[in-house]
Amino acid sequence: MPDCDLILPCRDEAAALRVLLPRVPDGLSVIVVDNGSSDGTAEVAAALGARVVSESTPGYGAAVHSGLLAATNTYVAFMDGDGSFDPDEVLPLLAEVRAGSADIAVGRRRPVSRSVWPWHARAGNALIVAWLRRRIDLDAHDIAPLRVCRREDLLALDVRDRRFGYPVELLQKATAAGWRFSEHDVTYHPRAAGTRSKVSGSVTGTVRTARDFAKVLSR
């Protein structure tokens, strides 16, 4: 039986889920959090065997937290549902946390080509990571776009941000709590055709996200 819930926060990701969900390893139980989709995301996810949770409050953090509350397994993994990550690459991260050698294992994006990660998104990510390394002495190279940890431990951190600042607050609180951190390279693919990034899809989206990060870092 699976001991890990793979939580996919989604908004209008039906096209991606049709390809992604059949590729999820058997050892992971999938929860799709539908965050206000209008393209049939929930219906596609349910038809492909995922458990579907609806979250009406818009925002990445709101969707992630809703999935965390709905999870029932010992471990939780979080990954974008846009087809940009390989679900198989969750397993090495999960194995490390299971073995007790890390409290949180995260992915470091390695794009398959430069066009996958637009310049403005790469620059914003690098700025936030540099700030984290300086402020909390975290030896990170990305903001944990793919991550695995124990469910009860994450609930105990009490991450409050409900927008795009969620992963930054998580990393800050995990470091303050003395969590052991491990980072692994993960392949970063183009988004599935028919979907559009809310963050890197435009300069405006990247700026909005950076503003959410800055609010968390200024607390």
Structure description:
- The protein has one domain (4-217): Spore Coat Polysaccharide Biosynthesis Protein SpsA, Chain A (Alpha-Beta Complex).
- It contains eight helices and seven strands, in the order βαβαβαβαβαβααβα.
- The protein has helices at 14-20, 41-47, 60-70, 90-99, 119-136, 151-157, 166-176, 203-217; strands spanning 4-10, 28-34, 51-54, 75-78, 104-111, 147-150, 181-188.
- A seven-stranded mixed sheet has the order 3-2-1-4-6-5-7, sandwiched between helices.
- Strand 2 (28-34), helix 2 and strand 3 form a beta-alpha-beta unit.
- Helix 1 runs parallel beside helix 2 (41-47) and helix 5 (119-136) runs parallel beside helix 8.
- It is globular, with a radius of gyration of 16 Å.
Widest sheet, order of strands: 3-2-1-4-6-5-7
Q: Return the CATH topology.
A: Spore Coat Polysaccharide Biosynthesis Protein SpsA, Chain A
The amount of beta strand, in percent, is: 15-25%
How would you spell out the order of helices and strands?
A: EHEHEHEHEHEHHEH
Major sheet summary line = 7 strands, mixed
> Can you tell me the CATH class?
Alpha Beta
> Helical amount among residues, as a percent range?
25-40%
Number of domains: 1
Q: Count the helices. How many?
A: 8
N- to C-terminal separation? 41 Å
